[in-house]
Amino acid sequence: MNAQGVRVGVRVLAGAATLIGAAGVAVHFLRWPWEPLVLAASGAPYLMGGAVLGAAGFAATRQWVATGVAVVIAGAGIATQVPLYVAQNGDAGRPITAMQANLLFDGADPGALVDQVRARDIAILTVNELTRAAVASLSQAGLDELLPHRYLAPGQTASGTGIWSRFPLSDTVEYDGYVLNQISATATVPELGPVSIYAVHPVPPVYDTGVWADELARLHEILRRSPTDRPVIVGGDFNATYDHARFRALASGRFADAAVQAGAGHLVTYPTDKAIPPVVGIDHFLLANARATSVETVALPGADHRALVARIELTTEG
């Protein structure tokens, strides 16, 4: 191939890469529950990277107008991701450490989970895919000694959900009308008072994007009705990433994504049981009247998710 042919080929590839980048920016904002778009939004940051390649390709072939377009698209993509890397300041409060873990039914190593709870001084633990066998194994491994208060809705395979707490739990609720179990309770924290705890697990979009969108919307309504006179901690496998507009709607108003508050960046949690490393972050903490100072992922042998650990400061101010 001659030099002219190479230049044409580079421009074609740069154009395709730029279009892919533009698609990544677009799906970050779209709310239409059409499965290809929802799944594309899961990988939006990777798609956005196409605009960077496009800009490089156009610049190499001296296509300056096209280079400018690609740079603008790349800049728009970067702007959507910057909030994940800029920590938010806030008033200090009562410190607490919380963990969110998806157990892959009873596949997660109970001893490893209990070791993490002990080593990281976890006070609140929310879990998904909790089976009755897993409850028994975790109890045998010593979880109830570290976190003696619990409210559990175990189930078959993926449906089970649970809350373990160092503090007494009351006002327990299991919410009807969901495919998987969604629960909440009130923890009474010394020197602070009541803290609302939610453990959630909406269905994945591959189950049915309409049901997925509906469950996220109804969870949004539940959180909007949560008490405003106390901190709220929501832990779960949301089956949605930061790049899903419907998830960001949940993390709005008085609620915030703990990873965004802490400037923790992209915390990929799933999958961990494949030949490839985790590629998407679908496990989250949402907080109200509270601020995360750090959030990190933790390996959980036997599970298909990395667990999430958040160091949180609780306040009573809105």
TrEMBL record:
SUPFAM superfamilies: DNase I-like. The lineage of its organism: Bacteria, Bacillati, Actinomycetota, Actinomycetes, Mycobacteriales. It comes from the Bacteria. One of its GO terms (molecular function) is endonuclease activity. Residues 99-305 form the Endonuclease/exonuclease/phosphatase domain. The keyword Transmembrane applies. The chain crosses the membrane at residues 12-31, 37-58, 65-86. This is Endonuclease/exonuclease/phosphatase (EEP) superfamily protein YafD. InterPro entries: Endo/exonu/phosph_ase_sf, Endo/exonuclease/phosphatase. Keywords: Endonuclease, Exonuclease, Hydrolase, Membrane, Nuclease, Transmembrane, Transmembrane helix. The keyword Transcription does not apply.
